[in-house]
Structures are given as C-alpha cells and as structure tokens.
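Thread title: Can someone regenerate the structure for this chain?

I was given the following input by a collaborator and told the matching structure tokens would be attached. They weren't. Posting the sequence so someone can regenerate them.
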Amino acid sequence: MNSQPYTIHIEDHVLDDLRDRLARTRWPDAVDGAGWDYGANLDYVRELAEYWRTGFDWHAQEARLNSLPNYQAEVGGLGIHFIHVRGNGPDPLPIVLTHGWPSTFLEELEMLPLLSDPAAHRGDAADAFDVVIPSLPGYGFSDRPSEKGMSAKRTAALWSELMRDSATLGSWPTGATGALRSPRNSAWGTPITSPRST
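Best answer:
Regenerated them for you:
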C-alpha cells in the first residue's frame, strides 16, 4: 500500500451547480404547527439550504481542512482518504478513529489535538497517540464501493490493513474506536473496531 499526500479541492463549477440546484428546490407543504413532529422542521431546512446557497464559504472550509495532513491510500482496492497526525510524545500509540454512518471524518477532528498532543492540553505527553482518521468508503473523499458487501466487518478489515501499513504507522499495537450507525440496526451505533491489547 502506498500512501500519498492528498489535497481537497472542489471545482467552482461543482459549487455553482450545487447553489443552482438549491435555488431550484421544490419545497413540500408544511403541516401547520407541526414543528419537528413529522420529521425535519421545514422552516429550519429552508433556512439551512439558503445558508448553504448564499452564506457558506466552502473555500474557507477547504483551506482549514487542507491545513491538516491529508492522505489517500489504496486499501482493499479502494482509494481511502485519511487524516494522519503524529503524536507529540515519547512513544505515541497509533489509534484509528472511525466516524459514524452516515457522517464524516469532521466529527472526529475536535479530539485530534487532545489525543496527538495531550501535553499542550494539560495532559501527559506519555499519553500521546498517532491519530489516523479515515473517511468510510463512499464518504468524504474516499472512493465509493462499486459492489455489494461493504459492511462493518469489511470496514474493520480495511482499517486493519490501513493501520498495518508501514508507510502509514510502522508499528503495532494499535488502538481503535468507532461505530457505524445504521437505520436497520436497532442499537444505532454498531462497533466496527475495538481496542487491541499491547
């Protein structure tokens, strides 16, 4: 497996098309006084769509995301996007953080500085982690699977391969955390990885 630096870049014509489609949204009727009783509140969703169309600055977000060390590697035949921040400590433990389903790697970013540089946050440098945050297949900037069978078990195998890659981390043991969320799963938060003992 060969990990390469990755730059997030969305072309302006793609953003223009999104804004155009948002402007042409055909909104449903609302039930008077329903609020959130029958799903998402229509006024809220319209306000959010208008913000996406006229107020959201994608290029500023893109620059913020590109300030992080982004990579892509072919794992199990798929291009997998991931963030990889080396820990600032004497012997950082590699850890993979998995975002939920459906969601994005962005939900894990708040933990990134706390785990990779605990001493900067009133912690102990000996507790530092090498942090890897991949995007699930078909999410964010990872390739979409073209065949059936992408499951929690398959994703865990992909992450195992990613974490074993010497170009990525170069050492075991590795810790892991994460869950896939599925509407078919009554538990709503199926673990796909679990900590490995040292």
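The helical segments are 12-23, 42-54, 58-66, 112-116, 152-164.
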